[in-house]
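Regression test attached.
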Amino acid sequence: MSDLLKVSSNPHIRSKSTTVGIMAAVIVALLPAAGFGIYNFGLRALLVILVTIASTVLTEFLFGLYKKKLTVIDLSAVVTGLLLALNLPVNIPLWMAALGGVFAILVVKMLFGGLGQNFMNPALAARCFLLISFPLQMTDFACDAYSGATPLAIIKAGGGVDVTDMILGNTAGTIGETSMIALVAGACFLLLTGVIDLRIPGSYIVTFIVFIVLFGGRGFDPSYISAQLAGGGLMLGAFFMATDYVTRPITIKGQYLFGVFLGLMTGIFRLFGPSAEGVSYAIILGNLLVPLIEKVTRPVAFGKGGRRYEK
Amino acid sequence: MAKLTFVGGIHPYDGKELSKDKPIKEILPKGDLVYPLSQHIGAPAQPLVTKGDRVLVGQKIAESGGFVSAPIYASVSGTVKAVEPRRVVTGDSVMSIVVENDGLYEDVGFYPIAPMEKLSREEIIEAVKEAGIVGMGGAGFPTHVKLSPKEPAKIEYVIANCAECEPYLTSDYRRMLEEPDKVIGGLKVILRLFENAQGILAIEDNKPDCVALFKQLTKDEKRISVRALKTKYPQGGERTLIYAVTGRKVNSSMLPADVGCVVNNVDTIVAVYRAVAEGRPLMERIVTVTGDAIAHPRNFKVRIGTNYSELIEEAGGFKGKPEKIICGGPMMGFSMFELNVPITKTSTALLALSKDEVSAMEPGPCINCGRCVEVCPGRVVPSRLADYAEHFDEEAFLENNGMECCECGCCSFICPAKRPLTQEIKSMRKIQLAKRKKN
């Protein structure tokens, strides 16, 4: 019987959490926002979501065939596709949404070595790629229900907005970003299941609030602050994109620093930039700084430089 | 200052209910007894007997091979059958003394050297050294070395490690419940070596009955107190234990004595008591035989040198077919490929699992989730260290505090990508430790 025993290095037990489980949790957490997007913008939103996911999954599958290593089973391509779709306007031409999916998986993820190796959030990189390549289609938010201007654009132009509508999500915007309630509900699920923690979203949002209070020109104005929080991609970005494991610092102090940096950048882009938005670029820029942040926030090992006790 | 816990750590399924309620059963060996000459950290012992010699229970059969070493005693009476290399649990072949048991258990006679109150510090340490006592929690460091720090007056805490944080293990728990007087007696012996020290029984709070029992038994002892620590693996690790009890931190290049502490496992403390108070050398220990593939899990008092397969028989054999058998606990134990190996001074448990979770899982790419960083009690970044180890980047490994890893296994346990992080870091540490020794 000696030849039948299994032998391996310790430890001999493993926790229940798996990569697929984590990805599935993220998908579940994005469902309220996706569902609200479909309710808000109509069935075309569902079509955009399906096309984008099909594009990311198919790209990963085909690349896997070429490399003879199928990785599509880990569900990460579905997460990328869903996140990308939630970052697109409902009127986007479908071929453009599909192109975004190919860019996200092929260029940003697989060419850098696949899951865990990409240095930028694939969904956001693809969004920025589309935004630069097709600025008109990517900022066309007009649909049956809304005239076209997003609440943040209205604020930037000096207009007034209904904050309650913004929190509920009855406004123009990308498919998944409009409803703060749906996004926060999903985020709570991730927080409760331990998939994400509050370090990055917390430091990000707090820094952003401080920044707009100081430089927004309105002082401490609760309705302005809530409009800034509920508007644009801040909630989607802070809870679902900035917390992307692969492209955020692994060190605990680094995560706080990363959040603060994102808060500052988002504030600068929104207040002083040409667009009313700034979350995507802030996160992408933050992604690039991750190696540097990790280097300066390397944890102090237990007892390092330990003091000897003398009586 | 007592923190009663530490940062990091995990809460695995503890499996202790399988064996914790049955009293310890003493068993006698049936087959030959095998005594490997290396059952401890340090120089191997030197054999004092040759083939054909008759030995008695308690007879010294191998002499200490140096200061950091320990003698070995026969645990049965019988005839030396051979002095030859035999396989041990780790899979290594180690020079061993093989004794054929005659079943008579004739002993050499055990007498305490002197009444305990009259013993000097040197006599106590000599008694511990002569008894062949080593750290019985698994490390096997000779106890007399631990008890002889350069400046004994600077020791402030003598900590009895009663945490037993390894899942499935209940031998310390049973020992505490069944022989609490010996645990306290042993602690008192050690306290005699350190006049400025407080004795502390550090027990995890998943053993409330032990905590209550010891609080009751020590309520009139001025120098002994009980601390209930939060249950979390690896609370019983030396560094995490010292931190939880005193708030002081020991790193890889320090000794507990540097922060005024001496730490010993429950079983070791009982062995010290028996050596000093009864004059009995180390010849037996308690082993937990457990796991879902064991018919009747329980703790056994076993003579050192007994074959592992006899333990399985005593526990009613296997229930179904085991896939993995582990010597020790599931977090830090060795997986065994055969059972025909002897129980040594450091054998804490035998764990038979009907399913091996590890081989069923395919490691995937690291997704940088940071769970290993959260659980690491050494406060390093295990996923990166494992990367450096895999690419043999020694410089980066050392620069990122790779040597501060205590190999507890939390990172591998928690990893959602099922990467063998501990294994990779361990192999690199082994190489670096060997290099340190050379220089």
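Expected vs. actual: identical. Residues 329 and 400 of chain B are 29 Å apart (CA to CA).
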